[in-house]
Amino acid sequence: MRTLPSRHTTEEQSAANSAALRGAMVGAAKYGIASLALALVGTFISPVYRNLTIQFKVFIQMSGMTLGGWIEADRRLRGYEFWRLAEARRKRDEDVWREWERMVGEKKQDGR
Question: Which end of the chain is more exposed for a tag (fewer CB within 10 A), N or C?
Answer without folding.
Answer: N
